[in-house]
Amino acid sequence: MSALLNFYGNHKKIIIAAGMVVLLFAVGEMIVGTFFSVNQVLLTARVASFIALFGLCQMIVIASGGGGLDLSVGFNATLTAILIARICDGQNENLLLAVLVAVGVGALIGAVNGIFSAYMLLPPLIVTMAMSNVIQGIINVYTAGRNITGRPAPILVQIAARSTGRVANILFVLAILAILIMLIIYKTRWGTKLLGVGANENVAYLSGVNVKNVRFFAFVACGALAGFVGLLLVGYMGQAFKDMGSIYVMPSIAAVVVGGVSLSGGEGNYIGVIIGALMLQTLTNVFVALGWGDAGKWTGFGIILILMLIAYAGKRSRA
Q: What's the chain's average pLDDT?
């Protein structure tokens, strides 16, 4: 019994989030009657995977502390998706170039965010909001007076939009990425520094850690990953279009919060973020089943964020 209590205490947030997923599936089962079918569960996980991927971008900058958030990840992904579609144009020959461009452009955007946020100490919320507007302007100029042309490489389509058996290939990508990220965060020096800076930047500084560098590279990693997600997103959608990534910004933040990652930094449990993404997508499915559509979805996301933030603030005030 004590072992179970210790396990619950150490993983309380994830267990509660997972319990909410099961509860929402049960509600959906009562409404529709097919929510617990294997096909429905796999479909929900497939759609939730992109929320989880964008949630990874957010988790890295949030884990570094300093009020880190990146509101530009969706616009970053949209820009790279448009470029990738043009570069590949339905062929595999230029896929390597497309990957380099996606990661490189994303990292460059992240570096600009990092310079202003980490080195110039400007609020990340304002910096990344401004960057979102800049990227949106670049997209508008690039596409002014013409249609967005190009198609993703067939390999990208196979990875992001196809399945192996009944399991979507994007879920294999997410599983591999989750393992790599958890190993990097918990088993490498950079991961230790990232969590240390987020947990207590003064202690980290006194221990010889360059706090600004760690936070700068957190934004670079976030941007590079956002570019990579843009690569997968265009493969999933089959084409690039304006605002294709911006709809994931709020859900990506909500997934981190719902997954139990502290907004003050110092935590990096990506498994919780994935469960948070699954919960949000299941909630969306329930709203669709009820006939509430997008209005219900965004209202639900907002309510969840507010409740989780209230709970977090209450926890801090009692600490």
A: 88
Q: Which residues contact 66 (CB under 8 A, 6 or more apart)?
A: 117, 118, 124, 198, 201, 215, 265
Q: What is the mean pLDDT of residues 75-83?
A: 95
The pLDDT of residue 12 is above 50: yes
- Block residue for tokens 């990953």: 225
Of 311, 286, 269, the C-alpha closest to 23 is: 286
Single out the residue of 139, 157, 140, 133 nearest to residue 83, CA to CA. 139
Kindly state the average pLDDT of the residues 201-211: 93
Is residue 208 packed enough to be buried (19+ CB in 10 Å), middle (13-18) or exposed (0-12)? exposed
Measured at the CA of 89, the angle between CA 88 and CA 92, to 5 degrees, comes to: 45
Does residue 234 register a pLDDT over 50?
yes
Question: What's the CA gap between 181 and 174, in Å, rounded?
Answer: 10
For residue 218, how many C-alpha atoms fall within 13 Å in the half-sphere facing its CB? 38
User: Exposed/middle/buried for 213, CB within 10 Å: 0-12, 13-18, 19+?
Assistant: middle
215: left (phi over 0), alpha (psi -120 to 50) or beta: alpha
CA distances 147 to 141, 144, 212, 242, Å, are 12, 8, 41, 10
- Dist CA 41 CA 166 (whole Å): 11
Task: Specify the CATH number of the domain 12-318.
Answer: 1.10.3470
- The lowest-confidence range among 4-8, 39-43, 74-78, 225-229 is 4-8
pLDDT in tens, 95-120: 999 999 999 999 999 999 999 999 99
Domain boundaries, the chain: 12-318
Q: If we measure between CA atoms, which residue out of 279, 218, 252, 232 comes closest to residue 56?
A: 252
